[in-house]
Amino acid sequence: MRANYPRIKAWVGLSEEGYVNHPRDPGGATDRGVTQRTFDAWNLKQGKPKRPVRGITKHVVEQINEFQYLDAVRAADLPVGLDYAMADYAVNSGPGRAAKDLQRTLGVQVDGVMGVQTLAAVTKADTADLIQRLCQRRMRFLGGLKHWDTFKGGWTRCVMGDQPGVHIR
């Protein structure tokens, strides 16, 4: 739901604060959740020169997130709650993976395209149950990454909140 975009962008921003260049993070240098590679591509698209991602403004991050992630997973066409879950998944793991895992969760053709078939299946699903199952699937994916042990605490809080008893292995 597009009316939720300001809230979604704010919530995504809560878990993506400040500049980080962790040696175990395959994304490399990141500020406010935007990698240097994504920022370079954004600047190129805008006709601007490359520059360090460090110090990127909140406004630019929100523009990138809307264009690159929220619109890509059709967050404006999703029910409240699922729009945020998909936006956060897309920002952190890419819109293609987010779309494919939603499709797997729905039991529809997995092609990574948030098209009419996927959206129709979403309208038939129980939203709360769908969000829960999607987040569990996301946690299984994250748990299989080689750098899980380094980032598991933050990822778990980001995806599942502080729910007691959340385990993926």
TrEMBL record:
Domain TtsA-like Glycoside hydrolase family: 15-94
Residues passing through the membrane, by range: none
InterPro entries: Lysozyme-like_dom_sf, Peptidoglycan-bd_3, TtsA-like_GH18_dom
Gene3D superfamilies: Chitosanase, subunit A, domain 1
Domain Peptidoglycan binding: 98-157
Pfam short name (any one): Glyco_hydro_108
Organism: Falsiruegeria litorea
Protein name, per record: Peptidoglycan binding domain-containing protein
